[in-house]
Amino acid sequence: MVVVAGALALAACSRSKEPSPEEQAALSNYVPPFVMSRLDFGGVVERRFRRYDVNNDDKLTRNEVSQRLLPRFDEIDRNKDGAISNEEWSAWMMARFDAQDINHDGTVTSDERERAREMKEVDLPTPAEEPANATAAHN
């Protein structure tokens, strides 16, 4: 009986744990293909607006947008009232999506994103890149 228990213990120790698919991907620097539909991106746009709108007044002021977006504030604020409405935000963000959707199929792929980067376009945010809370949205 002791021999069997010892053999089982030895067998358990000798097996190395197989890395999960995520761990294997990280170890090999694998970047999965990016595909985002226009509909999915619309959800990202809406959630991001709500996170930036810290006082929940349905508009973004200069102190609510990230430092990265501040230089584009006037471009996004089309009616020049000093605030970005949800409609202005959505129109600007969706125009960015449409500019990257080279074949106009309603989906942006890894190849289309890469091409936009090469053309010096600002990259589209993805759900994984969304800030966890309003504080993180401003960094």
TrEMBL record:
PROSITE patterns: EF_HAND_1, EF_HAND_2. Residues 73-99 form the EF-hand domain. It comes from the Bacteria. Residues 125-139 have a biased composition (Low complexity). InterPro entries: EF-hand-dom_pair (IPR011992), EF_Hand_1_Ca_BS (IPR018247), EF_hand_dom (IPR002048). Residues 103-139 are annotated as: Disordered. It holds the Pfam family EF-hand_5. This is EF-hand domain-containing protein.
